[in-house]
Structures are given as structure tokens and as C-alpha cells.
Design goal:
107 residues; mainly alpha; two-stranded antiparallel ribbon; 3 helices; 72% helix; elongated
């Protein structure tokens, strides 16, 4: 894979999580509970951290990382990615929202 493809694959999840947070906060027909909003922000932070660590780990030799620190960062990246996936799936499975009633206009 080329470097641009790697960057695209590493930055796509944080962008999708940012859109997910936007949907939870700005959806017109659904009102999400507070825990879902907090969990979505935590998923965004964890997903962004995972993507950022992936970008750093692409050039780990130029950052003068030892093998031990490299594998520590790889483990941390996987853990942050799992946290982001877990929070996102828990929100999607629980469906913590109530639908708002659309006002009907009489003509």
C-alpha cells in the first residue's frame, strides 16, 4: 500500500466518529440521552488517539523509538481502537433516543 492509502485508512475512522458525534448532537427527529452523548465523545477521543498513534507509528524509526516503545504504542493503539468500537457499538445497539413529534399544520 502507498503512504497516501495508509493515511486515508488511518484517518477515516476519526472522521466517521466525528460525523457520528455530530449526528447524536444535531439530529432533528431524535433526542439522545446524556450517556450516549458522553460515550460518543469518549469514542471520538479514543478513535482520534488511535489514528494519531497510527500516523506516528508509520515512521517509528524516524522518531527514534525503541522496539519496546514501538510495541507499547502498537498495544495502546489497539486498545484505543477497541474502546472506540465498543462505545460506538453500545450506542448503536442500545438505541438511546426518543423520537420527537413532528408538528402538523392544518391548512
Amino acid at each position: 500500500m502507498t503512504r497516501s492509502q495508509d493515511l486515508t485508512l488511518l484517518l477515516l475512522p476519526p472522521i466517521c466518529l466525528f460525523a457520528f458525534v455530530g449526528v447524536l448532537f444535531l439530529h432533528r427527529n431524535r433526542v439522545y440521552t446524556a450517556w450516549a452523548k458522553i460515550a460518543s465523545i469518549l469514542a471520538l477521543i479514543a478513535g482520534s488517539g488511535s489514528g494519531l498513534l497510527g500516523v506516528v507509528l508509520m515512521d517509528w524509526r524516524s522518531h527514534h523509538l525503541t522496539r519496546h516503545s514501538y510495541y507499547t504504542f502498537v498495544g495502546l493503539q489497539g486498545m484505543l481502537g477497541g474502546i472506540a468500537i465498543g462505545f460506538t457499538l453500545s450506542i448503536l445497539i442500545a438505541r438511546p433516543y426518543t423520537k420527537t413529534q413532528a408538528e402538523t399544520r392544518s391548512a
